[in-house]
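[DERIVE STRUCTURE TOKENS]
===
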Amino acid sequence: MFEPLIAFAHKLAVFKDGWPNLDDYQALLTQHPEPILTQSGIPLRIAAQGPRPVGLEEQYASRIYLTGEIQTRVANWHDFFQLLTWLTFPKTKAAINAIHHQAATKRFAGATESGRRSPIENMLSLFDEGGAIVVCSDADLLQMIREFDWKNLFWQDRATLIEKMNCIIFGHALYEKALTPYVGMTANSVLLPVDPDFFYKVMDEKIKTIDDLLSTLFINGSNYQSPQALSPFPILGMPDWDTRNAQENYYDNTGYFRAGRNTVRLTTPRSP
């Protein structure tokens, strides 16, 4: 589950007996091969957690967009993974931040209720916190996800899934949960069709491709306007993400591998 972040392992291993401080986090940003920029063109930089925001410019997302300052707490897994996802998916994080700022600007200008988020803000928050990207070159596998046809997806077509589908965690809160994984962990996922040659790339190249595609998808935005656009995905169904899922009966747990609302679960197994 942590494979997308593996590139930072050697840089963080020096802190195995203690937490990085804010200067250490800033060093991670400074040492990055390319500057991490907001969509407003400002370099991202670490700032201490501030008091409760009052005006628009003090709101968490708007402060990032307007000043580049990302408020960060030390000894806090949530903020730790927040920074790592900025380093891993810089274009997508910047796109999400810009959309949040634009929506907040409208709310504070009185176009909508200032304390009530719009559907697109709710969708982006769900993805930013608990999202994953399911990249797949097989349309049938993606359709199984849409139909909540979990046993066929994860068991009957397991060999095809291993060859033609990856799940990449995006959400920093989901990474935090993955420290102590539990049956019930479900991602709010984006289903991303890719060409077969995607799976011949090394992880760094995969991440860059995903970041390019995902940031463009959110900027264009036509299909991602509300939480309903995200697909629930029980991530521990992925082969080897739970040692117990090597057994077929693992997927009989309908409390975890649930049928979707207004969806009739397929009961006839597909031929291997």
Observations:
- The radius of gyration is 20 Å.
- Confidence is low (pLDDT under 50) at residues 263-272.
